[in-house]
UniProtKB/TrEMBL annotation:
Native species: Ferrimonas marina
Keywords recorded for this protein, A-Z: Cell outer membrane, Membrane, Signal, Transmembrane, Transmembrane beta strand
Compartments where located: Cell outer membrane
Annotated membrane topology: Multi-pass membrane protein
Main location as per UniProt: membrane
Signal peptide region: 1-20
Name the UniProt record assigns to this protein: Long-chain fatty acid transport protein
GO terms for MF: long-chain fatty acid transporting porin activity
Listed Pfam families: Toluene_X
Top-level taxon of the source organism: Bacteria
InterPro entries given in the database record: OMPP1/FadL/TodX
Gene Ontology CC annotation, any one: cell outer membrane
Family: Belongs to the OmpP1/FadL family.
Length: 438
């Protein structure tokens, strides 16, 4: 039976950052970033609300546009990477710049059709990151023979991008209750490489589409107080492309040999998301808002590679093809997670608005951790400001400082065995947004 360790670790590195285990990108608007996304499913101060709750479109009585850009400056530190070599412990140090920044655009439009129905369209991103752990110092990993004894299967470059295209509709039942629903078309693409010297252990370049949906509701107690809730049904993503690996395998009748394997498709289940939010205009100038969000990561059990074929690349049986078929590449023991945020909005004047917020974002990794997927509980500290250019046009700025925790981990390498490391992840989000009501 073919040994799957190298393939599993490689696929884990390309898929999991996309799913948000390392970083789920909360980046749909500058206003949301400024208030830590507290109340974002019901505030409805611009068109970006449709990314969180389609029912909130019923709060608009005129057409609305919003568009912006967020830059996520990801900071991923990897420290004290060490393992046991043939002659004793080997320490290959760490890197303080394993994270790569991301530019994340968004655009939204809401059009009321009458006093009951509104439709909306949006393009935004929920997930994406870039990591590079391949620049560690391997000097200490050179053996007297000149061979390099290092966990090459855990070290390398990963780049992931996703785009969520959404179309939604809302319906006002009465003065208090509104309902909404939408369809998500999610496009994802990723690149990954893992090299042992000049030998490519893993070379992946894949993309694909998945389709999901969202339903929501809002309840307006009066014009100053309202709550909202939504449930996002996430798809099982299937990505196709060049998915190639080289790994050792024990072949019956042949013995140990290196096998090059190609898969046609990867199946990656995504987590459903439920959230509830509230907005309360406590005074003419100050509003309090909050959000609780539950993400069902406990359903993320494994990644499956489909329709694999292998070929022996060395020894007397070189060139022999080996059917692989569907393979459960990696098992995960992730937990369901909660996110809680609270924030405030203060109208300084007719033109200036101030925002601030705090968010606690619970990590999902339980017993299985990874150098390529640094994860922990995170604290968000955010602030924002808005300026009304005209009564119908607004520019908003938002900034968020995301602080993770240091995590000591042990990850299994198919090459060197257990690898010890300490990881810490964080980020700074910078966002600008233009909104207009027609």
């Amino acid at each position: 039976m073919m040994k799957k360790s190298l393939v599993a670790l490689a696929i884990a590195a390309i898929s999991a950052p996309t799913l948000g285990a390392g970083f789920q990108l909360n980046s749909q608007s500058a206003t949301g970033i400024g208030r830590a996304f507290s109340g974002d499913a019901v505030i409805a101060d611009n068109a970006s609300v449709l990314s969180r709750n389609p029912a909130a479109m019923a709060l608009f009585n005129e057409a609305a546009f919003s568009g912006g850009i967020t830059y996520a400056d990801l900071a991923i530190d990897i420290k004290d990477v060490n393992y046991m070599g043939p002659l004793g412990p080997i320490d290959i140090g760490g890197t303080s710049d394993a994270g790569e920044g991301k530019v994340i655009p968004n655009i939204f439009y809401i059009q009321p059709l009458n006093d009951k129905v509104a439709v909306g369209f949006g393009a935004f991103s929920n997930f994406g990151t870039g990591t590079d752990s391949g620049n560690l110092d391997l000097t200490n990993a050179v053996l007297p023979t000149g061979d390099v004894y290092a966990p090459f299967d855990l070290l390398g470059n990963t780049e992931v991008t996703t785009i969520n295209l959404n179309a939604s509709v809302s319906y006002r039942i009465n003065n208090h209750l509104s309902l909404g629903a939408g369809i998500d078309a999610i496009y994802g693409e990723g690149k990954l490489d893992r090299f042992a010297g000049e030998t490519p252990l893993v070379a992946v370049e894949a993309d694909g589409w998945g389709f999901g949906g969202i339903i929501g509701a809002t309840w307006e107690f009066n014009e100053r107080h309202r709550i909202g809730a939504s449930y996002r049904f996430s798809p099982d993503m299937k990505v196709t492309g060049d998915i190639n690996t080289i790994s050792p395998a024990m072949i019956p009748g042949v013995g140990l040999a290196n096998v090059a394997t190609s898969f046609d498709e990867l199946e990656v289940p995504l987590a459903d998301i439920f959230q509830v939010a509230g907005f309360h205009q406590l005074t003419d100038r100050f509003a309090l808002h909050y959000t609780a969000q539950f993400t069902q990561w406990g359903n993320f059990e494994q990644i499956t590679a489909l329709d694999g074929n292998g070929i022996i690349i060395d020894g007397p049986a070189a060139g022999t093809e080996i059917p692989v078929g569907d393979v459960a590449l990696k098992e995960y023991l992730w937990d369901d997670s909660w996110l809680f945020s609270v924030g405030g909005t203060y109208n300084l004047s007719d033109r200036w608005t101030l925002r601030a917020g705090y968010m606690f974002d619970q990590g999902v990794v339980n017993e299985i951790s990874s150098i390529s997927i640094p994860d922990s509980d995170r604290n968000w500290y955010t602030a924002g400001i808005g300026f009304n250019i005209t009564p119908k046009s607004t520019i908003d700025l938002g900034i968020a400082y995301v602080q993770g925790k240091e995590v000591d981990l042990v990850e299994e390498s198919a090459i060197v065995g257990p690898v010890n490391a300490t990881t810490e992840s964080g980020a700074v989000y910078y966002s600008v947004q233009y909104s207009h009501r027609f």
